[in-house]
């Protein structure tokens, strides 16, 4: 593979204008497709195989109007202290709000009068108006949203409190200036790392082109493939981070090849042939982890993973083709001025045999080699301590009760809880597939459990010959509580097979259970495939095993930090967490997928250099030092860049995006700087030659992909062998 990539890199360098033109054309076509596509809608959410989903499918068949996907708004009105919404003056204001809602937009489907549908609390202090729209939240026009926001302004002047809940106010998440800050931090790190503006700008430019193509393609296909609105954010987050990192490794290796005296085209070819091999396998681990999310069998998660994986594939292709093409335009300008002068301008060459001053990576590796056991224990104990909060992990899906108290949605949620009870915001819906006798029996069974605040009378799907009934059950506790989860389980235990429990609360409970059930199979699949891949790359059993165990340690520690910040509220103000609450159900399995792929990036980039040195005769300890000498600075820069990019999404207004950004940033911090930079060299130092042991029979079975470039060197007849590369003449273009 190294030989093929070498030729690909040289070809891209030589035909740089055509390669650059091709990528610009792809960017233009993707951008045109995105601009021509209709506004993306919210993706449909389904969980095949769960009871809640079966009930919802039955509702779509028997109650099509009830199961419609249109947006919903709930306008909550509370009377001033000592007054009631049933008072004549207040009632007039409420009915005026109803009239304003009906005339406010042609997208309105229905508006319920609270006095006619009994939407008034028992104490008469609170009422709510349910408004349904013909389109989903993403399909609402700005005019419709503004009309909804203006609802009740006059009523508030009379002393009534008016708040608005529901998904009608849902908009695209705002990431603020976080992304721009992350890119600026990446630019600063690249300048410091390379000492050249050209070299720093090249990874940024190529990464932005790759991400632009990926995000534009997702936007263009969003409605066709039902990708939803958060898929592009995830793809941007991961694509931008790996795009910068992959280009960074190619450019860094090109500079190293130039420093050894090779011609520019030859240096570009060798950079892609060696570092490019690591990029391919690192990208494969990320793709495996993201595509593997399909094992959960939740279409939304599968599509998010596949779209993000597509962006990673584009990042790999950009690194292998566009980066060497851009190097062809920059050539020697990727080097700092002093180094450029020495190599190309007749500067004073280094004295023969002169030793280079050890860099930071070399000094750190030697320190770890002197005290491997101490470093290993400190790293493991430190991460283990941070992971302790995982034992108190509570999972759920965010609702309006988890939003900041500054939002009208949260205030509407609280008003409904005060007026109608905590469970009113998450009623359960029992779907009875049978006659009236079956519905009455199910209703009596639920009442006998004494677990509900209210059990409403069964409602049929048609007046005569009804074959399906709906029973609304209001739990005593809030939707996200353990008590409400127990209520769902108890109802399912006593009800017959013809009774199905659904509703948003039941869907959330089933979703969490599905995540729990899928975690171990998914972990086995992803880690197993990646273990096999790394075994092929490193020709070792213990190195991939160490990589997998180190990943598990870093991801559990990162999850512990997420619990401490988002569930317990520690340092919540620093990260914009206004309302601590349960961790999203998908977070553990999502972190396993994404963080595993990213963690293997650093494993491949760092350990490949060690493997390369070991194959060429260095002792195990010295191979570790060599790997850090050439790789530590670049891996450190790559990790800082990735952390900055992910941390930029912490400023998002969407709780899910905020949590993902924080979790990925902290996971990369732990994995890159504690696991890969400390625990990995410590373990390799303790293992010695055993780290690179592979049974002979397995060595014969596994394909040889030549990541360290041994076959490439033989193909090129290295100067040591007296080949044509011996003179290493410098040609200035």
From TrEMBL:
One GO term of the cellular component aspect?
plasma membrane
- Write down the InterPro entries for this protein, in alphabetical order: MMPL_dom, Mycobact_MmpL, SSD
TM helices/strands, residue ranges: 180-200, 207-225, 231-251, 272-295, 307-330, 373-391, 519-538, 550-571, 583-607, 628-650, 662-687
Keywords noted in UniProt: Cell membrane, Membrane, Transmembrane, Transmembrane helix
**Annotated SSD domain residues:** 197-329
The entry's localization annotation reads:
Cell membrane
Q: For this UniProt entry, what is the primary localization, expressed as one broad class?
A: membrane
A Pfam family cross-referenced in the UniProt record is: MMPL
Q: Which Gene3D superfamilies match?
A: Multidrug efflux transporter AcrB transmembrane domain
State the membrane topology.
Answer: Multi-pass membrane protein
Family recorded in the similarity comment: Belongs to the resistance-nodulation-cell division (RND) (TC 2.A.6) family. MmpL subfamily.
Family annotation (PANTHER family): MEMBRANE PROTEIN MJ1562-RELATED, MEMBRANE PROTEIN SCO6666-RELATED
Protein name as annotated: SSD domain-containing protein
State the species of origin. Answer: Streptomyces venezuelae
